[in-house]
Design a protein that fits this description.
Elements lengths: L8 H4 L2 H13 L4 H11 L7 H9 L3 H19 L2 E11 L25 H14 L3 E6 L8 H13 L9 E5 L5 H9 L2 E5 L7 H7 L8 H5 L1 H7 L4 E5 L7 H19 L5 E3 L20 H14 L4 E4 L5 H10 L3 E3 L30 H10 L3 E3 L3 H4 L4 H9 L4 H18 L3 H15 L5 H15 L8
Parallel strand pairs: 1-2, 1-8, 1-9, 2-3, 3-4, 4-5, 5-6, 6-7, 7-8
The structure holds iron/sulfur cluster (SF4) (2 copies).
Amino acid sequence: MYNPKSLRAEEFISHEEVLETLDYAGKNKTNAVLIDAILEKASQGKGLSHREAAVLLDCELEDKNQEIFALAKRIKQDFYGNRIVMFAPLYLSNYCVNGCLYCPYHRQNGHIARKKLSQEDIVREVTALQDMGHKRLALESGEHPLYSPIEYILESIQTIYSVKHKNGAIRRVNVNIAATTVEEYAQLKAAGIGTYILFQETYHKESYETLHPTGPKHDYAWHTEAMDRAMTGGVDDVGLGVLFGLELYRYEFAALLMHAEHLEAAHGVGPHTISMPRIRAADDIDPGQFTNGISDDTFAKITACIRIAVPYTGMIVSTRESQKCRERVLELGVSQISGGSRTSVGGYCEPEAAEDNSEQFEVSDHRSLDEVVSWLMELGHIPSFCTACYREGRVGDRFMALCKSGQIQNCCHPNALMTLKEYLLDYAAPKTRAMGDALIALEMGNIPNEKVRSLVEEHLNEIQSGSRDFRL
Ligand code: SF4
Ligand code: SF4
Protein backbone atom coordinates (compact mmCIF):
# COMPACT_ATOMS: atom_id res chain seq x y z
CA MET A 1 0.00 0.00 0.00
CA TYR A 2 2.78 2.48 0.93
CA ASN A 3 4.20 3.98 -2.23
CA PRO A 4 6.17 7.24 -2.15
CA LYS A 5 5.88 7.59 -5.93
CA SER A 6 2.10 7.28 -5.98
CA LEU A 7 0.07 10.41 -6.55
CA ARG A 8 -2.65 9.17 -4.19
CA ALA A 9 -2.53 10.73 -0.72
CA GLU A 10 -3.41 7.54 1.10
CA GLU A 11 -0.53 5.73 -0.58
CA PHE A 12 2.27 8.26 -0.11
CA ILE A 13 1.07 9.11 3.42
CA SER A 14 0.19 5.54 4.27
CA HIS A 15 -1.36 5.35 7.75
CA GLU A 16 0.01 1.81 8.19
CA GLU A 17 3.51 2.93 7.29
CA VAL A 18 3.33 5.78 9.83
CA LEU A 19 2.16 3.36 12.54
CA GLU A 20 4.90 0.87 11.69
CA THR A 21 7.45 3.69 11.76
CA LEU A 22 6.29 4.78 15.20
CA ASP A 23 6.44 1.20 16.41
CA TYR A 24 9.96 0.76 15.01
CA ALA A 25 11.13 4.04 16.57
CA GLY A 26 9.57 3.17 19.94
CA LYS A 27 11.31 -0.21 20.02
CA ASN A 28 14.67 1.37 19.25
CA LYS A 29 14.61 4.46 21.43
CA THR A 30 17.46 3.14 23.58
CA ASN A 31 19.24 1.14 20.89
CA ALA A 32 22.62 2.90 21.01
CA VAL A 33 24.11 0.85 18.17
CA LEU A 34 21.33 1.74 15.76
CA ILE A 35 21.24 5.37 16.88
CA ASP A 36 25.01 5.64 16.35
CA ALA A 37 24.67 4.19 12.86
CA ILE A 38 21.90 6.66 12.00
CA LEU A 39 23.93 9.57 13.37
CA GLU A 40 26.92 8.43 11.34
CA LYS A 41 24.82 8.39 8.17
CA ALA A 42 23.26 11.75 9.03
CA SER A 43 26.67 13.34 9.60
CA GLN A 44 27.32 13.04 5.85
CA GLY A 45 24.63 15.70 5.33
CA LYS A 46 22.62 13.70 2.82
CA GLY A 47 19.52 13.33 4.94
CA LEU A 48 17.67 10.43 6.51
CA SER A 49 14.60 8.34 5.78
CA HIS A 50 11.46 8.96 7.83
CA ARG A 51 12.10 5.75 9.76
CA GLU A 52 15.64 6.70 10.67
CA ALA A 53 14.64 10.22 11.64
CA ALA A 54 11.77 8.86 13.78
CA VAL A 55 14.28 6.79 15.76
CA LEU A 56 16.29 9.94 16.52
CA LEU A 57 13.15 11.80 17.54
CA ASP A 58 12.24 9.03 19.98
CA CYS A 59 15.79 8.57 21.30
CA GLU A 60 15.85 8.54 25.10
CA LEU A 61 19.62 8.35 25.59
CA GLU A 62 20.78 11.68 26.95
CA ASP A 63 24.29 11.56 25.48
CA LYS A 64 22.89 10.66 22.04
CA ASN A 65 20.36 13.46 22.28
CA GLN A 66 23.21 15.88 22.84
CA GLU A 67 24.87 14.46 19.71
CA ILE A 68 21.63 14.98 17.77
CA PHE A 69 21.53 18.65 18.79
CA ALA A 70 25.23 19.13 18.00
CA LEU A 71 24.81 17.55 14.58
CA ALA A 72 21.76 19.70 13.79
CA LYS A 73 23.79 22.80 14.62
CA ARG A 74 26.65 21.63 12.41
CA ILE A 75 24.39 20.83 9.47
CA LYS A 76 22.66 24.18 9.85
CA GLN A 77 26.02 25.90 9.75
CA ASP A 78 27.31 23.82 6.81
CA PHE A 79 24.26 24.40 4.61
CA TYR A 80 23.05 27.84 5.61
CA GLY A 81 25.90 29.50 7.51
CA ASN A 82 24.77 32.19 9.91
CA ARG A 83 22.33 34.04 7.67
CA ILE A 84 18.65 34.21 8.62
CA VAL A 85 16.20 35.27 5.94
CA MET A 86 13.49 37.73 6.98
CA PHE A 87 9.89 37.87 5.79
CA ALA A 88 6.48 39.19 6.83
CA PRO A 89 2.97 37.81 6.34
CA LEU A 90 0.36 39.91 4.54
CA TYR A 91 -3.24 38.88 5.16
CA LEU A 92 -5.50 39.75 2.24
CA SER A 93 -8.87 38.47 3.42
CA ASN A 94 -10.31 36.51 6.33
CA TYR A 95 -13.59 35.50 4.72
CA CYS A 96 -13.57 31.73 4.68
CA VAL A 97 -15.98 28.96 3.73
CA ASN A 98 -14.19 26.31 5.76
CA GLY A 99 -14.94 25.16 9.26
CA CYS A 100 -11.43 24.51 10.66
CA LEU A 101 -11.86 24.04 14.40
CA TYR A 102 -8.51 25.64 15.32
CA CYS A 103 -8.78 28.83 13.25
CA PRO A 104 -10.81 31.96 14.17
CA TYR A 105 -11.57 32.57 10.49
CA HIS A 106 -13.82 29.50 10.43
CA ARG A 107 -17.14 30.16 8.83
CA GLN A 108 -19.23 29.83 11.98
CA ASN A 109 -17.32 32.51 13.91
CA GLY A 110 -19.86 35.33 13.91
CA HIS A 111 -18.01 37.84 16.08
CA ILE A 112 -14.61 38.25 14.43
CA ALA A 113 -14.35 41.31 12.16
CA ARG A 114 -14.40 40.14 8.55
CA LYS A 115 -12.21 42.13 6.19
CA LYS A 116 -10.80 42.05 2.73
CA LEU A 117 -8.11 44.41 1.47
CA SER A 118 -8.92 46.44 -1.63
CA GLN A 119 -6.09 47.06 -4.12
CA GLU A 120 -5.75 50.55 -2.61
CA ASP A 121 -5.49 49.01 0.88
CA ILE A 122 -2.80 46.66 -0.44
CA VAL A 123 -0.78 49.58 -1.77
CA ARG A 124 -0.94 51.19 1.68
CA GLU A 125 -0.03 47.99 3.51
CA VAL A 126 2.84 47.20 1.15
CA THR A 127 4.15 50.75 1.45
CA ALA A 128 4.16 50.35 5.24
CA LEU A 129 5.92 46.98 4.91
CA GLN A 130 8.51 48.50 2.59
CA ASP A 131 9.05 51.33 5.06
CA MET A 132 9.87 48.73 7.69
CA GLY A 133 12.46 47.22 5.33
CA HIS A 134 10.72 44.06 4.16
CA LYS A 135 11.48 42.62 0.72
CA ARG A 136 9.79 39.21 1.00
CA LEU A 137 6.14 38.57 1.82
CA ALA A 138 4.01 35.55 2.54
CA LEU A 139 0.52 36.20 1.24
CA GLU A 140 -2.31 34.73 3.31
CA SER A 141 -6.00 34.48 2.55
CA GLY A 142 -9.07 32.57 3.67
CA GLU A 143 -10.83 30.42 1.08
CA HIS A 144 -13.88 32.05 -0.41
CA PRO A 145 -15.15 31.80 -4.01
CA LEU A 146 -16.71 35.28 -3.88
CA TYR A 147 -14.35 37.27 -1.65
CA SER A 148 -11.01 35.81 -2.67
CA PRO A 149 -11.25 34.08 -6.04
CA ILE A 150 -8.04 33.44 -7.94
CA GLU A 151 -8.52 36.66 -9.96
CA TYR A 152 -8.36 38.67 -6.72
CA ILE A 153 -5.20 36.86 -5.58
CA LEU A 154 -3.53 37.39 -8.97
CA GLU A 155 -4.43 41.06 -9.06
CA SER A 156 -3.13 41.47 -5.52
CA ILE A 157 0.21 39.88 -6.43
CA GLN A 158 0.52 42.25 -9.36
CA THR A 159 -0.27 45.21 -7.12
CA ILE A 160 2.30 44.12 -4.53
CA TYR A 161 5.08 43.82 -7.10
CA SER A 162 4.14 47.19 -8.60
CA VAL A 163 4.58 49.23 -5.39
CA LYS A 164 7.96 50.99 -5.36
CA HIS A 165 8.13 53.39 -2.45
CA LYS A 166 11.41 55.30 -2.00
CA ASN A 167 14.07 52.56 -2.19
CA GLY A 168 11.55 49.90 -1.26
CA ALA A 169 10.32 46.94 -3.29
CA ILE A 170 8.79 43.58 -2.58
CA ARG A 171 10.99 41.23 -4.53
CA ARG A 172 9.46 37.89 -3.67
CA VAL A 173 5.84 37.03 -2.92
CA ASN A 174 5.25 33.58 -1.46
CA VAL A 175 1.65 32.48 -1.40
CA ASN A 176 -0.27 30.56 1.24
CA ILE A 177 -3.77 30.04 -0.11
CA ALA A 178 -6.16 27.11 -0.17
CA ALA A 179 -5.53 24.00 -2.24
CA THR A 180 -6.63 24.62 -5.81
CA THR A 181 -6.55 23.27 -9.37
CA VAL A 182 -3.59 22.70 -11.70
CA GLU A 183 -4.88 25.54 -13.89
CA GLU A 184 -4.94 28.00 -11.00
CA TYR A 185 -1.48 26.94 -9.85
CA ALA A 186 -0.26 27.63 -13.37
CA GLN A 187 -1.78 31.11 -13.09
CA LEU A 188 0.02 31.69 -9.79
CA LYS A 189 3.27 30.60 -11.38
CA ALA A 190 2.70 33.01 -14.28
CA ALA A 191 2.05 35.81 -11.76
CA GLY A 192 5.59 35.32 -10.45
CA ILE A 193 5.09 33.73 -7.07
CA GLY A 194 8.05 32.40 -5.13
CA THR A 195 7.06 29.44 -2.97
CA TYR A 196 3.56 28.01 -2.78
CA ILE A 197 2.97 27.19 0.87
CA LEU A 198 0.20 25.01 2.18
CA PHE A 199 0.09 23.66 5.70
CA GLN A 200 -1.22 20.15 5.94
CA GLU A 201 -2.41 20.96 9.49
CA THR A 202 -2.50 17.23 10.32
CA TYR A 203 -1.58 14.18 8.26
CA HIS A 204 -3.81 11.92 10.36
CA LYS A 205 -6.78 11.41 8.04
CA GLU A 206 -9.39 10.70 10.67
CA SER A 207 -8.36 13.68 12.81
CA TYR A 208 -8.11 15.81 9.69
CA GLU A 209 -11.70 15.08 8.77
CA THR A 210 -12.89 15.82 12.31
CA LEU A 211 -10.96 19.08 12.49
CA HIS A 212 -12.30 20.17 9.09
CA PRO A 213 -15.97 19.27 9.37
CA THR A 214 -17.22 21.54 6.58
CA GLY A 215 -16.06 23.26 3.41
CA PRO A 216 -13.81 22.15 0.56
CA LYS A 217 -10.92 21.68 2.96
CA HIS A 218 -12.74 18.69 4.45
CA ASP A 219 -11.48 16.60 1.52
CA TYR A 220 -8.23 15.06 2.83
CA ALA A 221 -7.03 13.82 -0.54
CA TRP A 222 -7.70 17.15 -2.28
CA HIS A 223 -5.67 18.95 0.37
CA THR A 224 -2.85 16.42 0.69
CA GLU A 225 -2.35 16.10 -3.07
CA ALA A 226 -2.25 19.89 -3.56
CA MET A 227 1.54 20.04 -3.88
CA ASP A 228 1.42 17.50 -6.70
CA ARG A 229 -1.07 19.65 -8.58
CA ALA A 230 1.03 22.76 -7.86
CA MET A 231 4.12 21.10 -9.31
CA THR A 232 2.14 19.81 -12.28
CA GLY A 233 1.00 23.41 -12.81
CA GLY A 234 4.64 24.50 -13.00
CA VAL A 235 5.20 25.83 -9.47
CA ASP A 236 8.88 25.10 -8.79
CA ASP A 237 9.06 25.56 -5.04
CA VAL A 238 6.55 24.30 -2.50
CA GLY A 239 6.50 24.67 1.28
CA LEU A 240 5.12 22.07 3.68
CA GLY A 241 4.04 22.46 7.30
CA VAL A 242 1.94 20.93 10.04
CA LEU A 243 0.19 22.65 12.90
CA PHE A 244 1.76 21.04 15.92
CA GLY A 245 -0.72 20.48 18.71
CA LEU A 246 -3.57 19.03 16.67
CA GLU A 247 -2.36 15.42 16.55
CA LEU A 248 0.41 13.42 18.18
CA TYR A 249 3.65 15.01 17.15
CA ARG A 250 5.43 11.72 16.38
CA TYR A 251 2.75 10.90 13.83
CA GLU A 252 3.03 14.33 12.19
CA PHE A 253 6.81 14.18 12.12
CA ALA A 254 6.97 10.82 10.34
CA ALA A 255 4.22 11.77 7.87
CA LEU A 256 5.77 15.17 7.14
CA LEU A 257 9.03 13.47 6.17
CA MET A 258 7.09 10.94 4.09
CA HIS A 259 5.53 13.86 2.24
CA ALA A 260 9.00 15.28 1.58
CA GLU A 261 10.16 11.88 0.31
CA HIS A 262 7.10 11.66 -1.90
CA LEU A 263 7.79 15.03 -3.57
CA GLU A 264 11.34 13.96 -4.26
CA ALA A 265 10.27 10.53 -5.56
CA ALA A 266 7.38 11.75 -7.71
CA HIS A 267 8.69 15.12 -8.92
CA GLY A 268 12.44 14.99 -8.38
CA VAL A 269 12.39 17.99 -6.00
CA GLY A 270 11.82 17.95 -2.27
CA PRO A 271 10.07 20.73 -0.34
CA HIS A 272 11.66 24.16 -0.52
CA THR A 273 10.62 24.95 3.03
CA ILE A 274 9.03 23.35 6.07
CA SER A 275 7.10 25.57 8.47
CA MET A 276 6.69 24.65 12.09
CA PRO A 277 3.67 26.45 13.54
CA ARG A 278 2.28 25.48 16.95
CA ILE A 279 -1.34 26.08 17.80
CA ARG A 280 -2.01 29.47 19.43
CA ALA A 281 -4.84 31.18 21.25
CA ALA A 282 -7.19 33.21 19.03
CA ASP A 283 -10.71 34.59 18.92
CA ASP A 284 -13.19 31.74 19.47
CA ILE A 285 -10.30 29.27 19.84
CA ASP A 286 -9.01 27.89 23.10
CA PRO A 287 -5.79 25.97 22.50
CA GLY A 288 -6.60 24.09 25.73
CA GLN A 289 -9.25 22.12 23.82
CA PHE A 290 -6.43 20.50 21.83
CA THR A 291 -4.65 18.04 24.05
CA ASN A 292 -1.63 17.32 21.88
CA GLY A 293 0.31 20.52 22.59
CA ILE A 294 4.08 20.11 22.68
CA SER A 295 6.62 21.59 25.09
CA ASP A 296 9.48 23.88 24.05
CA ASP A 297 11.89 20.97 24.59
CA THR A 298 9.96 18.73 22.21
CA PHE A 299 9.69 21.58 19.72
CA ALA A 300 13.49 21.96 19.83
CA LYS A 301 13.99 18.23 19.32
CA ILE A 302 11.63 18.20 16.34
CA THR A 303 13.52 21.14 14.83
CA ALA A 304 16.86 19.37 15.23
CA CYS A 305 15.56 16.11 13.77
CA ILE A 306 13.97 17.81 10.74
CA ARG A 307 17.21 19.72 10.15
CA ILE A 308 19.14 16.45 10.13
CA ALA A 309 16.59 14.56 8.03
CA VAL A 310 16.21 17.16 5.23
CA PRO A 311 19.31 19.38 5.32
CA TYR A 312 18.43 21.00 1.99
CA THR A 313 15.01 22.30 3.10
CA GLY A 314 14.65 25.77 4.59
CA MET A 315 12.88 25.87 7.95
CA ILE A 316 10.51 28.64 8.98
CA VAL A 317 9.40 29.81 12.40
CA SER A 318 6.99 32.70 12.78
CA THR A 319 6.14 35.22 15.49
CA ARG A 320 3.76 32.62 16.94
CA GLU A 321 6.84 31.65 18.93
CA SER A 322 8.39 33.74 21.68
CA GLN A 323 11.78 35.41 21.47
CA LYS A 324 13.22 32.76 23.81
CA CYS A 325 11.90 29.84 21.80
CA ARG A 326 13.00 31.38 18.49
CA GLU A 327 16.46 31.95 19.90
CA ARG A 328 16.78 28.26 20.66
CA VAL A 329 15.52 26.88 17.36
CA LEU A 330 17.51 29.35 15.26
CA GLU A 331 20.62 27.50 16.35
CA LEU A 332 19.15 24.10 15.61
CA GLY A 333 18.09 24.57 12.05
CA VAL A 334 15.64 27.39 11.41
CA SER A 335 16.74 29.49 8.43
CA GLN A 336 13.82 31.91 7.96
CA ILE A 337 11.82 33.97 10.44
CA SER A 338 9.19 36.66 10.30
CA GLY A 339 9.62 39.96 12.07
CA GLY A 340 7.33 42.86 12.99
CA SER A 341 4.37 40.76 11.84
CA ARG A 342 0.68 41.58 11.94
CA THR A 343 -1.61 38.58 11.71
CA SER A 344 -4.72 40.62 10.97
CA VAL A 345 -6.18 41.79 7.68
CA GLY A 346 -4.60 45.22 7.51
CA GLY A 347 -2.73 46.57 10.50
CA TYR A 348 0.68 47.47 9.07
CA CYS A 349 -0.48 50.86 7.91
CA GLU A 350 -2.62 51.57 10.95
CA PRO A 351 -3.04 49.38 14.04
CA GLU A 352 -6.48 47.77 14.34
CA ALA A 353 -8.90 49.00 17.01
CA ALA A 354 -9.58 46.32 19.68
CA GLU A 355 -13.28 46.07 18.74
CA ASP A 356 -12.31 45.59 15.12
CA ASN A 357 -10.00 42.61 15.62
CA SER A 358 -9.40 40.41 12.57
CA GLU A 359 -6.29 38.65 13.82
CA GLN A 360 -5.72 34.97 12.94
CA PHE A 361 -3.73 34.16 16.06
CA GLU A 362 -1.98 35.88 18.93
CA VAL A 363 1.61 36.83 18.21
CA SER A 364 4.17 35.91 20.89
CA ASP A 365 7.05 37.96 19.54
CA HIS A 366 5.85 41.58 19.39
CA ARG A 367 9.15 43.25 18.60
CA SER A 368 9.61 45.58 15.65
CA LEU A 369 11.59 44.42 12.63
CA ASP A 370 14.47 46.68 13.69
CA GLU A 371 14.53 45.08 17.14
CA VAL A 372 14.52 41.61 15.59
CA VAL A 373 17.34 42.59 13.21
CA SER A 374 19.55 43.92 15.99
CA TRP A 375 18.74 40.92 18.23
CA LEU A 376 19.78 38.52 15.43
CA MET A 377 23.07 40.34 15.04
CA GLU A 378 23.71 40.25 18.78
CA LEU A 379 23.29 36.47 18.58
CA GLY A 380 25.85 36.27 15.76
CA HIS A 381 23.39 35.77 12.87
CA ILE A 382 23.28 37.85 9.69
CA PRO A 383 19.74 39.11 9.03
CA SER A 384 19.19 38.70 5.30
CA PHE A 385 16.67 40.32 2.99
CA CYS A 386 17.85 38.22 0.08
CA THR A 387 15.43 37.11 -2.64
CA ALA A 388 18.07 36.29 -5.23
CA CYS A 389 17.44 32.65 -6.13
CA TYR A 390 13.94 32.99 -7.46
CA ARG A 391 14.94 36.08 -9.44
CA GLU A 392 18.02 34.40 -10.86
CA GLY A 393 16.03 31.34 -11.89
CA ARG A 394 17.62 29.19 -9.20
CA VAL A 395 14.40 27.33 -8.42
CA GLY A 396 13.13 23.76 -8.23
CA ASP A 397 15.72 21.10 -9.07
CA ARG A 398 18.37 23.72 -9.97
CA PHE A 399 18.10 25.20 -6.51
CA MET A 400 18.07 21.79 -4.84
CA ALA A 401 21.24 20.68 -6.63
CA LEU A 402 23.07 23.77 -5.38
CA CYS A 403 21.66 23.37 -1.91
CA LYS A 404 22.46 19.67 -1.61
CA SER A 405 26.05 20.27 -2.68
CA GLY A 406 26.39 22.99 -0.02
CA GLN A 407 27.31 25.57 -2.69
CA ILE A 408 24.30 27.77 -2.09
CA GLN A 409 26.14 29.36 0.82
CA ASN A 410 28.46 31.01 -1.70
CA CYS A 411 25.41 33.02 -2.77
CA CYS A 412 23.55 33.28 0.56
CA HIS A 413 26.37 34.82 2.52
CA PRO A 414 27.36 37.68 0.13
CA ASN A 415 23.69 38.36 -0.66
CA ALA A 416 22.92 38.57 3.06
CA LEU A 417 25.64 41.20 3.47
CA MET A 418 24.47 43.29 0.51
CA THR A 419 20.79 43.21 1.44
CA LEU A 420 21.60 43.93 5.08
CA LYS A 421 23.57 46.97 3.92
CA GLU A 422 20.48 48.21 2.05
CA TYR A 423 18.40 47.72 5.18
CA LEU A 424 20.90 49.55 7.37
CA LEU A 425 21.03 52.57 5.08
CA ASP A 426 17.33 52.83 4.36
CA TYR A 427 15.50 51.69 7.49
CA ALA A 428 17.68 50.92 10.50
CA ALA A 429 17.86 52.84 13.77
CA PRO A 430 21.33 54.42 14.32
CA LYS A 431 22.35 51.77 16.87
CA THR A 432 21.32 48.92 14.56
CA ARG A 433 23.16 50.58 11.68
CA ALA A 434 26.39 50.84 13.63
CA MET A 435 26.12 47.21 14.75
CA GLY A 436 25.34 46.09 11.20
CA ASP A 437 28.21 47.97 9.61
CA ALA A 438 30.62 46.37 12.07
CA LEU A 439 29.13 42.94 11.33
CA ILE A 440 29.45 43.42 7.57
CA ALA A 441 33.10 44.51 7.93
CA LEU A 442 33.78 41.39 9.97
CA GLU A 443 31.87 39.03 7.68
CA MET A 444 33.62 40.32 4.54
CA GLY A 445 36.65 38.46 5.83
CA ASN A 446 34.63 35.24 5.74
CA ILE A 447 34.03 35.33 1.98
CA PRO A 448 36.54 32.72 0.85
CA ASN A 449 36.76 33.60 -2.84
CA GLU A 450 38.84 36.71 -3.52
CA LYS A 451 36.98 37.64 -6.71
CA VAL A 452 33.60 37.39 -4.98
CA ARG A 453 34.92 39.42 -2.06
CA SER A 454 36.04 42.29 -4.26
CA LEU A 455 32.78 42.21 -6.23
CA VAL A 456 30.78 42.43 -3.00
CA GLU A 457 33.07 45.23 -1.79
CA GLU A 458 32.33 47.10 -5.01
CA HIS A 459 28.59 46.58 -4.64
CA LEU A 460 28.62 47.67 -1.01
CA ASN A 461 30.23 50.93 -2.10
CA GLU A 462 27.63 51.35 -4.82
CA ILE A 463 24.84 50.71 -2.27
CA GLN A 464 26.42 53.33 -0.01
CA SER A 465 26.27 55.74 -2.98
CA GLY A 466 22.57 55.08 -3.55
CA SER A 467 22.32 52.11 -5.94
CA ARG A 468 20.21 49.13 -4.91
CA ASP A 469 19.38 45.51 -5.70
CA PHE A 470 22.66 43.72 -6.34
CA ARG A 471 22.67 39.96 -6.11
CA LEU A 472 24.74 36.88 -6.84
FE1 SF4 B 1 -10.11 29.22 6.55
FE2 SF4 B 1 -7.51 28.61 6.51
FE3 SF4 B 1 -8.66 29.41 8.77
FE4 SF4 B 1 -9.27 27.05 7.78
S1 SF4 B 1 -7.23 27.67 8.51
S2 SF4 B 1 -10.73 28.56 8.58
S3 SF4 B 1 -9.14 27.43 5.59
S4 SF4 B 1 -8.40 30.63 6.91
FE1 SF4 C 1 17.68 32.24 -0.14
FE2 SF4 C 1 18.94 31.96 -2.46
FE3 SF4 C 1 19.19 34.22 -1.12
FE4 SF4 C 1 20.35 32.01 -0.24
S1 SF4 C 1 20.85 33.11 -2.13
S2 SF4 C 1 19.17 33.46 0.98
S3 SF4 C 1 18.85 30.45 -0.80
S4 SF4 C 1 17.31 33.43 -2.00
